[in-house]
Specification:
12 strands, paralog of FGE (formylglycine-generating enzyme), 25% helix, 452 residues, 4-stranded mixed beta sheet
């Protein structure tokens, strides 16, 4: 009987071995084939080594950028600064999410559903959260336009369009939510207009401090998960606050929201808001990936200081500016970037403030305005001595305890020195300026297989 049992086991093992696709060989765990798409509006920056720092004369004697040969990995970078139109998409998504959440909560409190019409059409899609996947619950709880509501995990109905025309509100409950909780109170309105209360447009998300977790000797994973919640509307008052005794009200009034400036770089955005935008852009893309049963993309983020300088150089060794240099005027007598060419003369380059994100010629990596127009936030913290100690491989002096963040590229109000690819500058992470914007990057993980 024992021999028969052993024979049976051996026979089953033989069958399983014969039927195996691996034929008993070590072939590795088989996952899905990875066919990534080139990110929309981005250019591939190939990996390489370059001399980071000021190889030319340091006219300002800042002595904060000694030369150092470093290597960076491949990555994608936005070909332009993030524009007003692109950032408005983020703002509109947050505004939409907050309005839908408020409508759904009131509909729930009133016991109204889609069959009741009116505000009921905006009721939560499914009151039974047990039917939601773990991913859906996590995203609903951690990525939203509102703080704690007590309704976390309830899916919003995004299939029904929101109504913003006051004359077309479907019922008094809809009016109550929109007028009383989304708009400024009547006493704060003028010229017959009631505007959205932008202080209520808050974005909440979580992230993990991997650097701290990797270096910690002990501690659980949850100790390094951080939660952020912040207002995301640009500070339009920067056009007034940045320049004393100067008339810039038209820019304050129109620059961010008017369609005339849609293709201009967004400004008045702090480093923290730029980080929130990167998080939202990742979520927005991966929500679509999930709906099409595609593998998630890796995150969008701000470039490191080294990545920014490498990309700005455009593959030109020792260049002073993105176009090589050392001059800011072409051989045809045209300015190569938007900056302040002469003392008190902002318009000599045919621009007073910012210009369209695709103005002027791109560098050899096809990136526009890597010099001038607006300075750009990077992910790196500013330390004047950081070049002395950062790694030569993907260098980055990032510190959550250092509120000074590196900005690069110079802006429309700067002199040519700040346009140089090696010039370093900084601003505090919670500050917003009329001359600072940003662009995002994404790590390169391979190209799409064109044969499929």
């Amino acid at each position: 009987m024992k021999k028969l049992l052993l024979s049976s086991i051996a026979f089953v093992f033989l069958l399983s071995s014969c039927g195996s696709k691996t034929k008993g060989e070590l072939v590795g765990a088989q996952g899905k084939k990875w066919y990534p798409e080139k990110p929309y509006g981005m250019e591939l920056i190939p990996r390489g080594a370059f001399i980071m720092g000021k190889s030319e004369e340091d006219q300002a004697q800042a002595q904060n950028a000694p030369t150092k040969t470093v290597t960076v990995r491949s990555f994608y970078m936005d070909d332009t600064e993030i524009t007003n139109s692109e950032y408005r998409q983020f703002v509109e998504w947050v505004k939409d999410s907050i309005a839908r959440t408020k409508l759904a909560i009131l509909a729930d409190e009133l016991g109204l559903g889609p069959d009741d019409g009116g505000i009921g059409e905006y009721a939560f899609k499914d009151a039974d959260t047990t039917k939601l996947s773990a991913y859906d619950k996590y995203m609903l709880n951690n990525y939203s336009g509102m703080g704690e509501t007590g309704y976390e995990g309830r899916a919003l109905n995004r299939r029904v369009d929101l109504i913003w025309d006051i004359s077309k509100y479907p019922d008094e409950y809809y009016t109550e939510v929109m007028v009383d909780s989304m708009y400024l109170p009547e006493e704060e309105s003028y010229n017959g207009q009631r505007n959205i209360d932008v202080t209520k447009l808050k974005y909440k998300y979580t992230w993990m401090d991997i650097e701290a977790a990797a270096r910690a000797k002990k501690g659980s994973r949850k100790d390094f998960i951080k939660q952020e919640e912040l207002e995301i509307y640009p500070d339009t008052t920067v056009w007034i606050k940045d320049f004393s005794y100067s008339y810039n009200e038209p820019m304050h009034n129109d620059y961010f929201w008017h369609d005339a400036y849609s293709d201009y770089p967004v400004v008045g955005v702090s480093w923290q808001q730029a980080q929130a935008f990167c998080n939202w852009r990742t979520k927005f893309k991966n929500d679509d990936q999930k709906s099409r049963s595609k593998q998630f993309v890796n995150r969008f983020r701000l470039p490191t200081e080294a990545e920014w300088e490498y990309a700005a150089r455009g593959g030109i060794e020792g260049g002073t500016y993105p176009w090589g240099g050392p001059y800011v005027i072409s051989d045809t007598g045209c300015f190569m970037a938007n900056f302040k060419p002469q003392r008190g003369d902002y318009a000599a380059d045919q621009a007073l403030y910012t210009v369209e994100a695709k103005a002027y010629e791109p560098n050899d990596y096809n990136l526009y305005n890597m010099a001038g127009n607006v300075s750009e936030w990077t992910n790196s913290s500013y330390d004047p001595n950081s070049y002395e100690y950062v790694s030569t491989m993907n260098p980055n002096a990032e510190s959550t305890n250092n509120a000074r963040k590196v900005i690069r590229g110079g802006s429309w109000k700067d002199v040519a020195y700040f346009l140089q690819v090696s010039t370093r500058d900084y601003e505090y992470q919670d500050s917003a300026r009329s001359y600072i914007g940003f662009r995002t990057v994404q790590d390169y993980m391979g190209e799409e297989d064109s044969t499929n």
